Amino acid sequence: MNLTIHGAARQVTGSMHLLEVNQYKILIDCGLDYEKDRNVQANEDFPFNPATIDVVILTHAHIDHSGNLPTLIRMGFDGQILCTPPTAELAELLLMDSVSIFLNKQHKSRKHGRGKSHQSRQPLYLQKHVMDTVERMVTIGFNKPFRLNGDIELTFVPVGHLLGAAAAVLKINDNGQEKNIAFTGDIGRKNYPVLNDPQPLPPVDYLVSESTYGGRYHTQGQTIEEVLIETIDKACIKESGRLIIPAFSIGRTQALVYSLNKIFSNGLLPPVKVFVDSPLAAVSTQVFRKHHALLNEEAQEFYRHRGDEFEFDNLTYVENLKDSKQISNYFEPCIIISSAGMLEGGRIQDHLYYNIQNYYCTILFIGYCAKGTLGYRLLRGDPIVHIKDRELAVYATIKKTDLFSAHGDHNDLVNTVKQQTPDKLKQVFLVHGETESMQAMADALTQDDYQVTMPEKGVTYQL
Ligand SMILES: [Zn+2]
């Protein structure tokens, strides 16, 4: 069989791996490559004919793993997309959100008179392509082996990270020889709010592992609740101000809301008004409620004794834009959770516009901000930033924590590989990481006799 890493090779976005077993072609993930974002249209240049792919396996809903599926279908793929039930539902929401982002960019580009010259701002796909994608999804529960054909069996193993996220483990009969290969997707971390810990993978011959946090370590010594209590106490109780938390609507927001629920229902802080200002957060929280049985034991226990994990007194999900605008007229201390997480677009822009010059405002970053984003500039400490066509001085207090990261760190990643013994595991392929991260992980693994490859994009490996 042959393995080709077509995306997320020495970079973190655009996951797309092709596994060929005799004539059968399996595509594992089909993510949007953000590094092509200057020309989003480049995502339709597949290095293979989409019509020749027999089946797609989707590890989880994040756009860097799912975001190019509608293009694959638009370009001729007509097979099934296999994923877990929550992944199907969350991917639909995220893909629809992608369409809105494309249309928004196109609108802005036209407004600035660049419509004709900027082919890059043409939407990569539309709602109808997302609907075609959703129709092709076939859902499979965790740890339930599923036969792709007479020779190939797939099992989804939970990896934490995001509701529904799975490693794809394949048991293959390759001309009479049994071969096992696992694709980790993204690996979560232990003790993450709401989510189960990653489950160990069965022994395999080949492992295609993510490496995002290779060589990097999460902060130790403080819990999520401790950081939130300290920040809210200062920003909202002592200073009677407001706390703005930019957060991705799916995953990060639910982890945050549940953590706040625990704090307030245990009386660890006096009540503070909380606004979750994101329609996508409101609708995706329903998916978390629906798949309640997949949440971790602590969340289930909370539910049994206290009720809904994502609902508490003083919490309001703000869905329409009019109500969102009203938040700026709310003068009591409050917490505003809004997207987008990196502050590029979304309702968070309005909240920043009205509060960035407020001494009694704190902005708590709980996620990664890519270079070039407003979030990155604020974290860098820029004294003046550009928001909605105005230059504004930054008087708000800027804070950050990495405790909400949904990725395992260096130790988590290395330990996932080390659950396998080097005499059975023939080869580890590192993907979904910058070269330095991969190198740090490769160094740690080769010391213990693992065979590690950092594949170049498009190179085929015979397994
Ligand atoms: Zn992910």
> CATH class of the largest domain, please?
Alpha Beta
Largest beta sheet: strand ordering: 6-5-4-3-2-1-22
Indicate the low-confidence ranges by residue numbers.
none
Identify the bound ligands: zinc ion
What coarse outline follows from CA principal-axis ratios?
Answer: globular
- As a percent range, the share of helical residues equals 25-40%
The CATH architecture of the largest domain is 4-Layer Sandwich
* Rg computed from alpha carbons, rounded to a whole number of angstroms: 22 Å
Mean pLDDT: 93
Q: Structural class per helix/strand content?
A: alpha/beta
Summed up, what is this model?
By secondary structure, this protein is α/β, with parallel strands linked by helices. 30% of the residues lie in helices and 23% in strands.
Structure commentary:
This protein has 463 residues and is of the alpha/beta class. It has 2 domains: 2-216 and 407-462, Ribonuclease Z/Hydroxyacylglutathione hydrolase-like (Metallo-beta-lactamase, Chain A), CATH 3.60.15.10; 224-400, Rossmann fold. The chain has 13 helices and 22 strands. The protein has helices at 63-66, 69-74, 85-111, 127-135, 224-238, 252-265, 279-290, 297-306, 321-326, 348-355, 374-380, 410-418, 435-446, and strands at 2-7, 16-21, 24-28, 55-57, 80-83, 137-139, 146-149, 152-158, 166-174, 177-183, 206-210, 242-246, 273-277, 315-318, 334-338, 361-365, 384-387, 390-393, 397-400, 427-431, 452-453, 460-462. Strands 6-5-4-3-2-1-22 form a 7-stranded mixed beta sheet. A 7-stranded mixed beta sheet has the order 7-8-9-10-11-20-21, with helices on one face. Strands 14-13-15-12-16-19 form a 6-stranded parallel beta sheet, sandwiched between helices. Strand 8 (152-158) and strand 9 form a beta hairpin. The protein is globular and about 70 Å long. The model has no long low-confidence stretch (mean pLDDT 93). The structure holds zinc ion (ZN). Zinc ion is lined by residues 60, 62, 161-162, 186. The site of zinc ion has 5 residues, from loops.
